[in-house]
Amino acid sequence: YQGWQxxxxxxxxxxxxxLCGVNAAKPLLxxxxxxxxxxxxxxxxxxxxxxxxxxTTLLVTHSVRTGGSSxxxxxxxxxxxxxxxxxxxxxxxxxxxxxxxxTRAFFTRLAYDSLPLRITGGTRDLxxxxxxxxxxxxxTPLEVARVRxxxxxxxxDAFGTMKQIFDEDGIPGLYRGLVPRMAQSSWQTLFMxxxxxxxxxx
Length: 202
Fold this sequence. Notes:
- It is built from eight helices and no strands.
- By secondary structure, the chain is mostly helical.
- It is globular.
């Protein structure tokens, strides 16, 4: 449970930030085809999330790496680097969140429209969310790059960090942690993409 305090803050706010972004994009995409609308709204939600998730994921990573408390990590970052220190890895986080939610929403919509007609109701919603979440983990290299960057193991940008990982460990290195990320992505997609869609339909 190392880093649970910033993780709780992140968990409490990321859904609200996501839905704010989605709702802000809705009027702009109202006339778009369903798949385009899903992709665009997801991207806007992911972009909004990156505001809160950059500093919270940084604190979680520091806390896990050093074994200290999140408050100690926050104090150390502030004393050494000031506000700028809390934006470390922000590029990778933003790219991860935008690509996360744009593709999770896109694949969920695609799965919903593509499943056999005999699958209906809640089962169709459940299956589409799980499939969308699993397919949305294609960008795991960005998450691996984010962890390395925020752990202070790379000063390069997201693409430079991914190149370093590829050079050292090949493709398997870029997809470390894929299975638990699939599980996380599936339940997050169910709660933040499928559930709001079900409630809006009603």
